[in-house]
């Protein structure tokens, strides 16, 4: 099925892999923000996951260990942020920026020896006859395990926030840390845990970039994916199911512009590469315009430091 | 047990001391980093911080100091005004690119005509380019409430792609034998931004940086507008009662920092860099964020912080040459500096008491 030189089935199939890194990172950031912490360091944590995952996978030959290590690398960097913002009570915006700058530098330093190396391949899951179904087969049953894992993660996050007591506590901490503190919940501990989860997800998403999506290590390879994940959380009005829509929308645009480049349209490559960023801005604007007079969707204590005395 | 007690007012002593403490802590942590990379930490620190100023060939490196510090200070002076007001322009890199592209476009359109009016026209075009690029997140925030952080950052990637597009397309040197990149403005006398005093590295951008520092000082510390900006950042509700119009503040801060970043880009492209290429931007827009914080968002502090940061760039280049230290190590070093600074800031706002009740 082609439309203007573009294969729709391939487009939808690539959409799913293209969105997986941002989907993972955005889901993690959603949890952190639901707990009231704005971590602008997603980009830094993602790229640390990308380089950490890549290094571990090439060293051990196991992509699964790579993903695991990528998640750990992201979480470790998130802990730096957690210590600075939760213990040392530093400004979250500035610290997040520092995390991104630091992560970009450190990843470039670690990744020096890995340029041009190919990582061990991640196999696509074999669904047997399901994969042979026309149209649906290549779209839904032709991916590697991480794509499905990311979908499960979104579902679990949704259920966690909606149905569990722990999810309720997390939301309480994000909405009013003073009230949560007065009820005896440990605000700082909850926030640190949320940040660790966010970092692990971002690192996992970063590892997917370097191990599957590209698959290679290049300096600065996240190219703003972490920032787009942050934008998707806003776009999703802090709801996991909408994060999925946002990430797939973004992935769709990325996949489409790559297909347009491949199809040889007479649009300069650089102008096409611009599209995902421009469209992210446009979507943010549309959404902010719609929510202008509605209820504020952001957690009420988002970005505010908690200190028991104040 | 260690407890933190909030100070009624931030400590002036620590406000001035933390940057120094942070620099020392970064040197120690950086030394450890260099040691793990298999370099002699003491030598590495000496090569980065001492040799460019007082070592062999220091004369050349000292002139590079102003070349690098100029754009950093110029951008950071603008950013700091916004940061004080709680308006986060983190897209200075994009505004820098757009200033350079617009300024260079004016020069290349006039080529090869010689006129004394050309350079001033380029300066204006550069400022307008950065201003308009900074105005996009400002207007979107004012009219739709869109986060200026995300929009200004997205626009960096847009600007980067636009830069690559013009470098390969409209602004490409027609006599460049197919190589990407524009004509070299250093060979176009009317458009060249030369070294003003031989051997110092000071070009018009450095002069502009000094003017920006003085201007920012007057604005922030001697003018009612600066008071309004500071109140808006520290107590937004109080500011509204005092008659501060948030929309005007947002447009002013983002427009001003955009214009200054655009100027920095213009002076770079017409001076030290010389031409528009797809890799023309060197990350000054992001490093300037560190400079602004290291300088405590104070114009004079930014002046010193800009020089220090420029030193790490030059020292980093030297360490790369002489010790084989990877270029990225300096980026890590700069990131660590910001971490330590933000962490030690605790001492400015809180008193630490050892012993006492658990908070």
Structural class of chain A: mainly alpha
- For the record, the CATH class of the domain at 58-296 and 314-322 in chain B is Mainly Alpha
CATH-defined architecture of chain A: Orthogonal Bundle
What count of helical segments of chain A does DSSP give? 12
* CATH fold group of chain A: ABC transporter involved in vitamin B12 uptake, BtuC
Q: From N to C, what is the helix and strand string of chain A? A: EEHHHHHHHHHHHH
Largest sheet of chain B: 2 strands, antiparallel
Q: Report the largest inter-chain contact.
A: A-B, 50 and 51 residues
Give structural notes.
The complex is a heterodimer of chains A (310) and B (359). With 310 residues, chain A is an all-alpha fold. Chain A has a single domain, classed as ABC transporter involved in vitamin B12 uptake, BtuC (Orthogonal Bundle). In chain A, strands 1-2 form a two-stranded antiparallel ribbon. Chain B is an all-alpha fold and 359 residues long. A two-stranded antiparallel sheet of chain B has the order 1-2. Chain B starts with a strand and ends in a 5-residue tail after the last strand. At the A-B interface, α3, α4, α10 and α12 of A face β1, α6, α7, α12 and α14 of B.
């Amino acid at each position: 099925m082609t439309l203007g030189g573009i294969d729709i089935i391939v487009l939808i199939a690539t959409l799913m892999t293209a969105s997986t890194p941002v989907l993972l990172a955005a889901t993690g950031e959603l949890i952190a923000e639901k707990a009231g912490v704005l971590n602008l360091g997603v980009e830094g944590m993602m790229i640390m996951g990308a380089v950490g995952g890549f290094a571990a996978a090439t060293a051990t030959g196991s992509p699964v260990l790579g993903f695991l290590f990528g998640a750990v690398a992201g979480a470790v960097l998130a802990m730096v942020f957690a210590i600075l913002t939760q213990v040392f009570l530093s400004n979250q915006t500035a610290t997040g920026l520092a995390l991104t700058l630091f992560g970009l530098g450190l990843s470039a330093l670690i990744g020096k020896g890995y340029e041009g190396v190919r990582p061990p391949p991640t196999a696509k899951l074999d669904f047997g006859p399901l994969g042979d179904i026309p149209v649906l087969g290549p779209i839904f049953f032709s991916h590697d395990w991480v794509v499905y894992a990311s979908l499960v993660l979104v579902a679990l996050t949704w259920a966690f926030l909606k149905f569990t007591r722990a999810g309720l506590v997390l939301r309480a901490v994000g909405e009013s840390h003073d009230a949560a503190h007065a009820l005896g919940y440990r605000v700082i501990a909850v926030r640190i845990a949320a940040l660790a989860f966010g970092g692990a997800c971002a690192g996992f998403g970063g590892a997917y970039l370097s191990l599957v999506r590209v698959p290679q290590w290049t300096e600065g390879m996240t190219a703003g994916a972490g920032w787009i994940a942050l934008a998707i959380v806003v776009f999703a009005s802090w709801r996991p199911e909408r994060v999925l829509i946002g990430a797939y929308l973004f992935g769709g645009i990325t996949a489409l512009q790559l297909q347009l480049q491949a199809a040889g349209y007479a649009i300069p490559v650089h102008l096409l590469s611009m599209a995902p960023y421009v469209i992210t801005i446009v979507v943010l604007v549309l959404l902010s315009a719609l929510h202008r007079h509605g209820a504020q969707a952001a957690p009420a204590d988002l970005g505010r430091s908690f200190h028991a005395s104040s | 047990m260690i407890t933190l007690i909030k100070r009624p007012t931030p400590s002036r002593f620590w406000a001035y001391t933390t940057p120094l403490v942070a620099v020392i802590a970064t040197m120690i942590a950086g030394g450890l980093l260099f040691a793990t990379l298999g370099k002699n930490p003491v030598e590495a620190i000496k090569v980065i911080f001492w040799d460019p100023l007082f070592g062999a060939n220091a004369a050349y490196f000292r002139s590079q100091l102003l070349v690098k510090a100029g754009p950093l200070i110029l951008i950071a002076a603008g950013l700091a005004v916004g940061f004080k007001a709680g308006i986060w322009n983190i897209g200075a890199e994009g505004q820098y690119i757009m200033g350079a592209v617009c300024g260079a476009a004016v020069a290349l359109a006039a080529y090869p005509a010689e006129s004394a009016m050309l350079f001033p026209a380029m300066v204006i075009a550069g400022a307008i380019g950065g201003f308009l690029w900074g105005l996009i997140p400002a207007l979107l925030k004012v009219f739709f409430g869109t986060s200026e952080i995300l929009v200004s950052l997205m626009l960096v990637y847009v600007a980067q792609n636009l830069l690559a597009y013009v470098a390969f397309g409209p602004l490409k040197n027609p006599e460049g034998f197919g190589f990407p990149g524009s004509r070299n403005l250093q060979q176009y006398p009317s458009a060249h931004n030369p070294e003003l005093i031989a051997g110092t590295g000071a070009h018009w951008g450095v002069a502009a940086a000094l003017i920006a520092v003085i201007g920012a000082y007057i604005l922030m510390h001697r003018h009612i507008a600066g008071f309004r900006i500071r109140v808006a950042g520290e107590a937004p509700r109080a500011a509204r009662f005092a008659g501060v119009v948030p929309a005007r503040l947002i447009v002013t801060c983002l427009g001003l920092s955009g214009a200054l970043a655009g100027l920095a880009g213009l002076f770079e492209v017409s001076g030290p860099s010389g031409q528009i290429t797809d890799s023309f931007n060197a990350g000054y827009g992001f490093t300037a964020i560190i400079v602004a914080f290291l300088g405590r968002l104070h114009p004079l502090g930014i002046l010193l912080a800009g020089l220090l940061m420029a030193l790490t760039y030059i020292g980093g280049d030297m360490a790369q040459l002489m010790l084989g230290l990877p270029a990225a190590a300096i980026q890590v070093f700069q990131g660590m500096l910001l971490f330590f600074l933000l962490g030690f800031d605790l001492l400015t706002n809180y008193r630490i008491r050892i012993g006492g009740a658990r908070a």
